[in-house]
Amino acid sequence: MPSDRPKRRDLGPRRRRESLDALLDSLSAWDLLHIRSRFLDGSVRLDGFAGLSELPPEVFAYIIPHLGLRDVLSCYRVSRAWREAWMQGAVASALCSRFFPGLLELYHNDVPDRNQLFRATAQQYMRKLYVKRSFVAWDVGWSSDIFTNAEDPPVSRQLGNLREVNFGFGPLTVHYSSGKLAWQPDNCHVIVDDLHTRERSRFSFGMDFISGRPLQLQAVTDSLVVLATSLPQHQSRHQTTTDNGQTITVFHLQFRQSRNVVLPGKFAHCYAQGDTVAFVTRQGQVVVWGWSDSAYELDIDHEQYFFEREGWESDLGGIPGIMFHPTDTDVIYAAWLHSALQPDPLIHIVVVIKFERGKPVKRYESSISHPEYHRDPTTRYSCPAMRLTLTAQKMDNYGGYALGIVQLVLDRGNAPWADKQAKPYTDWLCITFNVLTETYLHIKYESRRRPNPAQARHFDLCAWEDQLVISWFDEYLVSQGYSHGLEWLQPVPVGDGASRCAHTNFVCKSVTRQQVEVEDYMSDHGFGRRIFMDKDFFIATTGQGFMLISFNDSLDLPGLATRDENGEVQRCKNPPPATEGEDIEPPRMSASWDTRKVTSLVRIALDKLPENQLDQPGW
């Protein structure tokens, strides 16, 4: 029989929450603590909700792009269930692809424990937050107080050696790779110091016997030292010309032997890895040579892969940048820069061609469009020009290369400059290419300093992972009292998608403080020259020596450093000021091939840019 009892009305979610809020307001503090403890000990179960550990691995792919590396590492410490969820193979693969693209491909995806690989790589990345610093003076002796030459010195070098020296403002030639720092103090010697083993190799040579020209250091690897015949620059009526020869001399560090290579044209630039060197001539030819392999030339006349858009041309004299595959020595990637003959909002196109044993097999493109800063009424700056440097330098150990670095030349006209101004936009852009994933990535950076004037030019650029460091050594900067020395740029996150640099979620304040301390040290004690960085070291060279920052705990840091009462190097402490050595003038060699392209932005009409190209990658 039907019940006379009235049906209970559903008050709805809002009314239920109001009732619960009223109940909680009526409880005492002890009652609330009791309820919280019941939730924490698991006595109260929330049925119908899936915890993180119950989610399928596919869901993590949507979560990971919104997390930073610190966030992920913190998730491992929440609970055992969370740690097991993040340790799943599919999740670890997604983490590797997101934060370290190319890492899995480096091992051909044949990794038994991908979680262990990710965590080891992440810990290696994070250890850059806790570093040791020292300063090593230039010492031209057969052996120094830090580096020992295994060979006995010749009789002529046993007494009266010149030791610590100061090259002042002279153009000292320095190169670095895999822990080996090579430098050329004069026309007849190259010194190679191993930062890992503290061993020194010293190579003596005279003029090239074929051309009668002096030899200039061009590159160093873990096994080779590369020198090219060179003459100082000569000034014509309208321009300064760099004259390089065609003869190359290569020394082998282990075999203590040398070989000569004759190029089909005058030398412009070279790139080296292991015992392989890619030589680029001023005519745009690329010759790949190996110590234990035959030389071959890249086929750059293939119409299927080498074509230009109508109204576009190749920049920098058609000189490409070269990238090496980390595991396959037969694979080479070459990058060219193209720009429009007439002012165009699509300013540059970066073209990468993949070669297999000299034959082109694939083409990749990425474009750079107008930043529109001088058209934005909300900004206090205009952007009259854009300066792009073709670098093609290695930026990680899993296939990443910094192809080009773009500087926006900002200007405020005749308005006074302020030392500190908030800038809600970027000053720099790094175009990267990974040879293992064969993909581009554009990373934005901003400077903490006031913008340098358009007349100032950087001396050197160095990119490693998400770090971008600039060396400013410019006569105009010094004469006008602008900042010089080193400058760390801050990566800028752009959106939450997969195109954003994975490491730019958060810049730790302690890291920023350390960077500023190093910048101040370099400004006080020396002008920054060539700069280098890899997984173990950051090196900033000056006329007196080089500042060395070590990321490797197992390495005893060489050189002058601040130490504690136990004699241990203090972390995150600048070294004391270095003593000046005897003044010496380095050889005035010819400069490297100019890889900078400056584009005026004032004449470009943005209304010609199609709507679907208004938001190009990177800007």
From TrEMBL:
Record-annotated F-box domain positions: 49-103
Pfam families xref list: F-box-like (PF12937)
Annotated spans, Disordered: 567-592
Gene3D superfamilies recorded: 1.20.1280.50
Annotated InterPro entries: F-box-like_dom_sf, F-box_dom
Protein name: F-box domain-containing protein
Protein species of origin: Hypocrea atroviridis (strain ATCC 20476 / IMI 206040) (Trichoderma atroviride)
